[in-house]
Write a structure and sequence with these properties.
This protein has 437 residues and is of the alpha/beta class. The chain is built from 17 helices and 19 strands. The protein folds into three domains: 225 residues, FAD/NAD(P)-binding domain (3-Layer(bba) Sandwich), CATH 3.50.50; 105 residues, D-Amino Acid Oxidase, subunit A, domain 2 (D-Amino Acid Oxidase, Chain A, domain 2); 51 residues, no CATH class. The structure holds flavin-adenine dinucleotide. The site of flavin-adenine dinucleotide has 40 residues, from helix 1, strand 13, strand 17 and helix 10.
């Protein structure tokens, strides 16, 4: 790039948000630069990960079918764990074979492909470029500084840097003396780890009860995270498993546990160990997840800039969604800039259209609905510790054939649930989940 080249838009970060914004604008004929610190897009990125093809299709059309996806998800399993049991809810939906809506992915492959679509659409993709500052002139962001003499100027800068806790551009850029995003608190962020474990495709299908090529998810709560607010997962890829999970940073700090402790504890659980037998760890990754809810969302537009994806704290951990909020917000930001270009008006008032579009989208509806979800778990640790154990005892009683009559068993279970407060808790939880906002 030539020194001080001027673009319609410069995007910081080629994750799902950044590439979605770049494709949207480049397709509309705008002059776009997409800057990425990794050696190639995706090389530093981490996700569980399950990707939702609907949002991908909205951005790249039929080309989504060529994306490097791993396995379509046919079965979703959720386990509530105690040290020696796993209480499961399994949903196998065979319609997902012909009409899949989610796939396992490996981000190193997917992000590189997605950024390639931006390049094909006409964006200039520049890897190995760390943006070290947003350039602010007269109270307006006017571009991205790379600290190596080829600063990039643009009418709009779109910040898609991911969570950027502590070191992010949003936290260190000041306009009128104020940072573009306040510092996140440890209970607004989850610390997550993941191992990619190699296992023969046939063995994956056998162990996870999948037809050839099909995939399955297992998400585990309770003892799996040693009772901390979060969950662990196993996702099936073509010939690897993604195994990982996380919990609130504040709870790691309080308990002095490390993410590695969590991982080792999970892998040793008697319901998990046989699934991973013989699988060899080929990659170990760690990353943060924004969990601040609707309250944690910073100002997503300002003079000369827009913020998308994890940088804007857009994530729904209850439904394990983040990549789709990133893509959708990137698309909405891209469309806003296209409108600005058509009107030749890049004022802050015009950029505010992005906020309006977000506010009226499913993204903000979901962010509002689940605003209280993480605090609910954080302030009620019994939901992931005591209650699974009571359920385990109740199910043990129910299934055990031991000479007691079924009447005796039912009455014993009912009394146990009432004594432990489970009946009220069950009702309160259903109500809370339904009306959450
Ligand atoms: C363990 C884990 C499991 C997850 N599982 C799922 C899942 O199953 N499904 C799901 O939908 N979501 C999942 N998520 C969430 C999902 O990964 C994020 O919501 C999504 O990646 C956000 O996309 P993004 O583009 O906003 O940010 P990111 O994906 O973080 O991308 C940011 C990009 O910016 C680049 N960058 C950062 N700073 C700079 C800089 N200064 N200069 C240049 N480049 C920079 C980075 O290298 C990166 O490429 C998971 C997250 C984790 C950590």
């Amino acid at each position: 790039m030539a020194d001080e080249e001027k673009f319609d838009a410069v995007i910081v970060g080629a994750g799902p948000a950044g590439s979605a914004a770049a494709i949207t604008m480049a397709k509309a004929g705008l002059n776009v630069a997409l800057l990425e610190r990794g050696a190639r897009p995706g090389s530093k990125n981490v996700m569980g990960g399950i990707l939702y093809n609907h949002y991908l299709e909205e951005i790249v059309g039929d080309a989504w079918k060529e994306a490097p996806l791993e396995r379509p998800i046919i079965e979703e399993r959720r386990w509530m764990m105690t040290p020696d049991a796993a209480i499961g809810l399994d949903y196998k939906n065979l319609r997902n074979k012909t009409k899949p809506h989610s796939y396992s992915v490996l981000r190193a492959r997917f992000d590189a492909w997605f950024a390639e679509q931006a390049e094909k659409a006409g964006a200039v993709v520049v890897p190995e470029t760390v943006v070290d500052r947003l350039i602010v002139k007269n109270g307006r962001v006017v571009g991205a500084g790379t600290g190596r003499g080829d600063d990039v100027y643009a009418d709009v800068t779109i910040v898609c840097e991911g969570i950027g806790l502590g070191t992010g551009l949003l936290e260190k850029t000041l306009i009128d003396g104020k940072p573009l995003r306040r510092k996140l608190r440890p209970n607004e962020v989850a610390m997550a780890v993941k191992e990619i474990m190699q296992l023969d495709a046939g063995l994956i299908e056998e162990r996870f009860n999948c037809d050839p090529g099909d995939g399955c998810t297992i998400e585990c709560f309770g003892d799996s995270t040693m009772g901390m607010s979060g969950f662990m997962f196993i996702y099936t890829n073509k010939d690897t498993l993604s195994v990982g999970g996380g919990a609130l940073l504040s709870e790691f700090n309080q308990t002095l546990r490390s993410p590695n402790d969590l991982m080792e504890h999970f892998k040793k659980h008697p319901a998990v160990k046989p699934l991973l037998r013989g699988a060899e760890t080929v990659e170990y990754l760690a990353h943060l997840i924004p969990e601040g809810g609707h309250r944690g969302i910073p100002k997503v537009y300002g003079p000369g800039y827009l913020v998308c994806g994890d940088a804007a704290m857009l994530s729904n951990p209850v439904h394990r969604e983040g990549s789709n909020l990133a893509m959708e917000s990137g698309r909405l930001a891209g469309e806003t800039v296209v409108h600005c270009k058509e009107a030749e008006d890049f004022s802050e008032r015009r950029l505010a259209e992005y906020k309006g579009r977000l506010d009226h989208s499913w993204i903000m509806a979901d962010m509002r609905k689940y605003d209280g979800a993480v605090p609910l778990l954080e302030h009620n640790p019994q939901m992931l510790t005591k209650y699974p154990q009571v359920m385990d005892r109740a199910l043990d009683e129910f299934f055990r054939v031991d000479g007691a009559s079924k009447w005796e068993k039912q009455s014993k279970i009912f009394k146990m649930l009432r004594k432990e407060g489970m009946l009220k808790m069950g009702w309160d939880t259903v109500k809370a989940l339904w009306t959450m906002k």
